[in-house]
Amino acid sequence: MTATILVVDDEPDLETLVTQSFRKRVRGGEIEFLFAHDGVEALKVLSQRPDVDLLLSDINMPRMDGLTLLEELQKADEKLATLIVSAYGDMANIRTAMNRGAFDFLTKPIDFADLEATIDKTVRHVNRLREVQRRVLAAERAHASLSRFFSPQIAAKLARDGENSVAVERRDVAALFTDITGFTSLVETTAPEVLGAMLNEYMAGMTDLIFAHDGTVAKIIGDAIHALFNAPGDQRDYAARAVSCACRLDAFAQDFMTRWREKGLAFGITRIGVHAGPVLVGNFGGGEFFDYTAYGDTINTAARLEVANKTLGTRICVSGVVVERAGTFSGRPIGNLMLRGRAEALAAFEPLSDASQNARLASYIACYEKLANDDPQAMTVFAAHLGTYPDDALARFHLKRLLNAQRGTCIALE
Predict the structure, then answer these.
(1) Is residue 59 part of a domain?
(2) Side-chain-side CA neighbours of residue 145 (13 Å)
(3) In whole angstroms, what is the distance from residue 40 CA to residue 21 CA?
(4) Do 374 and 298 fall within a single domain?
């Protein structure tokens, strides 16, 4: 790499002396010299050549002396390595030059061997500083990019630790999927500027909640969000985080839907599915594109649980695996779902975060126990439950199954 040096000096023969002394290195492309005769001319050259690595300046010059030049560079916040070369080598000038940012100070007459050694030392210093700045900028760009996908804490870790932090690996995760009902129809009937503002507000609120639970947004496709917990960083309580996040997302989405419906827009219900298990997770974007995502049956199952809400009448559906790993869980059983593509039934639950529903929950549990035990009274108790809680869509789903002579808690879904 060629080091570009600007020499600022009003001595008419200095340009020839410098060029002659460094001719081999100039011819070899190691050094390029630029020349100016005072500070005013130097500032003009610097404005035209931002690639200057080093400034070599005299002190005593017409129009603008070297110390004033240093002061002007400080005002402009130009962090340019400067060597002062002057016959005025008294302590006052040295201290002034150093206080104004000079890297070193040499006296005239110039010892060109000493000057060459000082230039080499200064260029090495400049290159080290630039490498540090390059790494800082790269880390900042990486952090800015990663912050679109990860919580601030995880983004900082990835920016610090580099690509190894997102290498493809096999690990257990909790996968969460969300989707908005009827969104395609909404797109076709809503003005673009209104739809854009609405969807941006919705996505900002949803992703903020995921990040607040230290989740990772793996994908946003249209109105759907795919999030992961326990990836890329370790989270011992990842299942509990996923359930808590699902409940918070549901509360936000319900409030959001209500507000926009009051404005006359038919914003749909947000459905959420959560499952936990092993996946293959990491950056699958190749060399140029960053795509941190996960693959495996766990991901497919979480997506199908989200879809199952439509049939069940629920808004959140989490697997028994998630409930077991979460430890503490507040909610109610849905049943054992036979999902498409799975050979075995999967226990499913609906999380409940509203403590005021204790009586309603107790009533449902009593009904569900009769259903699980094939009690002939199951249909009667579910009908009574709906008489008290007519808006319980899950209880209505079970009653409909009983009316169609579908007994037990094993539920076949498409």
Answers:
(1) yes
(2) 14
(3) 26
(4) no
CB contact burial 327-358 (16+ within 10 A = b; e otherwise): eebebbbbbbbebeeeeebbbbbbbbeeeebe
Question: Residue 283 maps to which CATH number?
Answer: 3.30.70.1230
Same-domain pairing of 320 and 383: no
Q: Is residue 310 domain-resident?
A: yes
342, 353 Cβ separation under 8 angstroms: no
For 305, other C-beta atoms within 10 Å of its C-beta total 30
Token pair listed for 77: 């916040």
Closest among 378, 219, 396, 225 to 291, alpha carbons compared = 219
CATH of the domain at 133: 3.40.50.2300
The first and second tokens of residue 219, run together, are 């994908």
CA distances from 399 to 246, 334, 357, 377 (A): 27, 13, 20, 11
Total number of domains constituting the chain: 3
Q: How many residues does the chain have?
A: 414
Position with higher pLDDT, 89 vs 376: 376
Task: Indicate the residue type of 190.
Answer: T
Q: How many CB atoms lie within 10 A of CB 135?
A: 10
Q: How far is CA 276 from the centre of its chain?
A: 23
Whether residue 209 has pLDDT greater than 90: yes
Give 111-167 pLDDT, tens digit per residue. Answer: 878 878 888 888 788 778 777 777 766 666 666 666 666 666 667 666 677 656 677
Which residue reads 């497919």 in tokens? 300
- Residue 154 within any structural domain of the chain: no
Are residues 355 and 388 in contact, defined by beta-carbon separation less than 8 angstroms? no
Give pTM, 2 decimals: 0.68
